[in-house]
Fold:
Amino acid sequence: MARKSIEWNKAGSFIVVLFGLVSALVTILSAPESVRPIALTVIIFAVILGLLVIFWKLFGKLGPSAIVDDPYVIKVSYEARPASSLDIHWIASLQKKFYDASDAVPIDILQEWHSACPEGFFVIVNQDDVRVGHIDILPIRPQVYEKLRVGQISEKQIRGDSLFSANERSVVTRIYVESIIIDPAEGAYRPFALRMILREFERLIERVADSNNVTFVSAMAATADGQRLLEGLAFTQVSDSGSRVDGNVFYEIAYADLRRRLRRATDSGASIEPVI
Structure:
């Protein structure tokens, strides 16, 4: 309705201007010949001035503020909120939906991790508080981390006591991003949801570790989209699928380098993929 009213205002204004112009021409033609040049000059000036005023009123306000107020513009926003125990069931079903059976983490293991370190689990919600994705961040103890890094164990062999608790966050030096998924049902808005995660990544890390002490961040690519994202952020391949018990590729990056790249990626609007 907003756009239609603008169009009617345009049409009505131009009709008024046209009617005024015709009336002015009739007046000039019926005036004495001696005053016609002066009258013509005055009327032309008035018409030009009127057109400029109308143009400014109709078109000068159709900038960003008008677009924002247009009811046809769809506004979306996303945020990461801590996952509850009920959310863990939803996360498990999401992983089963988007990962191969060998990569989806079973509900009992997710619950064990969540009980040990609930601060590392988040669900992504939209402006209507509807869950559209998740991210899991695991602060793994050094000995277990190294076994996962070189491929001696899989994710599913990580136990709750393999994770640092929030009370131990000051000694965490390596972070493992277990999963990021944004539901394809979000369509064209998926990159916006992922951009929010990347923009807020430092804040999310702070819930499980003192970011000043974090040296490396790692992840495994369980999908082609995830591989493109990790390689696009300049993660380095540490162990390949052929040398690992889980058959995946393990990536790692210095946290200082990742912070710089995340800031550039979120500021530049570069293309980003929605699944790791």
Q: What stands out?
A: Confidence is low (pLDDT under 50) at residues 1-11, 58-73. The beta strands are 78-82, 121-126, 131-138, 174-182, 216-221, 236-239, 249-254. The longest helix spans residues 2-30. The longest strand covers residues 174-182.
